Amino acid sequence: MEKDIRENIAWAQINKDVLRSLEAPRPLYWVILLVALAMVGVGVGCEIYQYQTGIGVANMNNPHVWGLYIATFIFWIGMSHSGTLLSAILHLMHADWRKPIYRFAEAMTTFSLMTAGLFVMIHLGRLWQFYYSLPYPNERGLWPNFQSPLLWDAMAIFTYLSSSIIFLYVGMIPDLAICRDNMHPGWRKKLYSLLALGWEGTDRQWRNFRVTYLTVACFLIPLAVSVHSIVASDFAMSQQPGWHVTSFPPYFVAGALYSGCAAIISLFIILRYVFKFEEYMTLSILKKTSRLTFAIAMVWTYLNAVEFASVWYSHDEAAKDVLIQKATGTYAPFWWMMIFCGSVVPLMLAFKRFQANIPVLFAVSLLLNLGMWLERWMIVAPTFSHGYYPWAWDHDQWPSLVQWGIVFGSFGWFALLFMVFCKVFPSVSMYEVKEMVYHRSLALKNGETAEEGVH
Amino acid sequence: MSRHHLLALFDNFDEAEAAIVELRAGNIRGFNPDDLILKSPIEHPEVEGVLGNKPVHIQWFTLVGAILGGLLGFFLISGAQANFFAQIKGGKPIVPLPPNFVLTYEMFILGGVFITVLGFLICAGLPAKRSPLYSAKVSEDQIGILVSGDESAIAALKAIFSKHKALEIQEEAGK
What is the CATH number of domain B3-41+141-173? Predict the structure, then answer.
């Protein structure tokens, strides 16, 4: 059986390897950073143009009032579920293999939520009126509508973002102390000293740390489910054909976990190479992540089928029309591409030979995420183009380059935040990898003792 | 009598645990076994058996935080909705419970998480000043035992640490 990690890695070596990643990544790191910066530049340029000229330049007009912005918002919210899955759910299930990779998954959660939040504001056009979506009265003393899923969204995302940041930070405190103890005097040492809060690894600190981490993990799981269920309610609680589907919340949650897992595979492969983490981000762990992704892909495929069946057999002609439009109308190439990327491509993950094949997995993970982005677009756009009123149908309205530019820029924004984080903070949890090595060597020792007893 | 502090460093948990067992059982004059702190690079729950029962109280912070968060959420929303009392509601309830449950639930979690972390900081004594007896080796691969005792106890404490192959013993004379 392949090992998730070597049991004889010296603990000092773990510190050394991870701390090295903060200072000397491979040159590809700088290439990624530059590309990300250029992409952000494109996005910011488009946003400035849209802000100064008006939302009309995005070509968002009736009936397509949400466009790519809200589809991409859902995509980024979905991406954020990876951290919760790896950190919280697998932590509760005592899956040790998550330990070397959960930190960057948590960072993904935080940064994808930050990216998602931007889309709500960008989509408004009038940025200065963003506060209308917060539970705060406006200048006429009117409060927002607390019965609207859009307000639930704002609260749920705020709760999820702040809890995720706290979860990421609390879990990092012992590692920040390691950084503090090993860095030369300078801004990094000052930063780590401040953030480590004087952590010394005492039994009192560890005892309370364990309970806190577990408790926050327990909160995060229902929170993550509620966040994406609420996003699903933005659609399912409306009366629009194709959206008023009971299975939307679980469908959204499954899609979120799916895209999160696919993104973890992509970033796993990138970080493994860029930061020379071959010793920690092992092929065995990659294989487990691939299998998990495959399982979730099949759940998503099943829920997709449920959604289509419930629309088809509901005898709701308008909803049925939207489904037919998706499969045969303007959006058909994208819809079929979604089915191909989301349900057919992951079948490759069922084969052992591909489960740890890095080039294949990288390509597959990118295709899966393309499929998941298309899924969100295919939820939003076809319903708007083919609603209840035939005189409001518009199958030809297409997002402008400004919209595409901002969506493109969001990927750069996410990559920029993520790569900067990985260079400033340890993206592999040093103390948890040590725990993993310790428990593994202990299990081996106990096994050997038991074997000697038998002989 | 002035208090002295000792930090002994070990290269494995077995020796450190054996030293703690002996320190606690030794009945050394001028040394209170409860003045013993273990410092380690990883969490080591097994040590709780030898350190004695030390309860954690964070769950109470969690409970209070979650309840307060939920109540705050519910009453904030209900209070705001009550502003519309004078408006025509068409027979619908002024404070509708099912939709309010969603935001109450979110605030329940938010309160729970925030106050849990506050509880962690209080219970773990963070932020803390670095103690004078600290070795960066503790965050790397060594296990430290920090004890404090009267001058008369120091020799006995050092003897126990040396017996259990302490790699290094740091000493500081305190107040």
Answer: 3.30.70.120
Taking an 8 Å cut-off on Cβ atoms, the answer to whether A143 and B59 are in contact is: no
pLDDT digits over B37-92, tens only?
899 999 887 777 788 778 889 999 999 999 999 999 999 888 888 876 556 667 77
Return the residue in B10, B51, B81, B116 with the most chain A beta carbons within 10 A, the one to mutate for interface testing: B116
Q: How far is B29 from chain A (nearest CA, A)?
A: 24
* Nearest chain A alpha carbon to B54: A204
Distance in Å, alpha carbon of A451 to nearest chain B alpha carbon: 21
Q: Identify the band that residue A342 occupies on the pLDDT scale cut at 50, 70 and 90.
A: very high
SS3 of chain A: helix, strand, coil, percent, to 5: 75, 0, 25
pLDDT digits (tens, 9 = 90+) for A118-137: 998 888 888 887 777 777 77
Would you call B100 an interface residue with chain A, using a CB distance cutoff of 8 Å? yes
Q: Where are the domains of chain A?
A: 11-135+145-439
> A395 vs A57, A168, A378, A390, B127, CA distance in Å?
19, 44, 13, 11, 59
Mutate to test the interface with B, among A204, A218, A229 (most CBs of B within 10 A): A204
Amino acid at A104: F
The whole-number pLDDT of residue A89 equals: 84
Angle between helix axes A149-182 and A11-21 (nearest 10 degrees) is: 120
B41 interfacial to chain A (CB closer than 8 Å): yes
Cβ contacts of A215 on chain B, cutoff 8 Å: 58-59, 62, 112, 116
pLDDT band at A396 (very low <50, low <70, confident <90, very high): confident
Q: How far apart are CA A255 and CA A297, in angstroms?
A: 8
Mark yes or no for CB contact B59/A438 under 8 Å. Answer: no
Tokens of A169: 């930070």
List chain B residues with CB under 8 Å of A207. Answer: 48, 54, 56
Check if the beta carbon of residue A354 is closer than 8 Å to that of residue A287.
Answer: no
Q: Which CATH architecture has domain A11-135+145-439?
A: Up-down Bundle (1.20)
Contacts of A447 (CB under 8 A, 6+ apart): none
**What is the pLDDT at residue A395?**
86
- Whether B121 and A197 lie within 8 Å, measured CB to CB: yes
- Residues recorded for chain B: 175
Distance from CA of A95 to the nearest CA of B (A): 17
Contact in structure between A261 and A85 (CB atoms under 8 Å) = yes
Q: Where in chain B is the domain with CATH 3.30.70.120?
A: 3-41+141-173
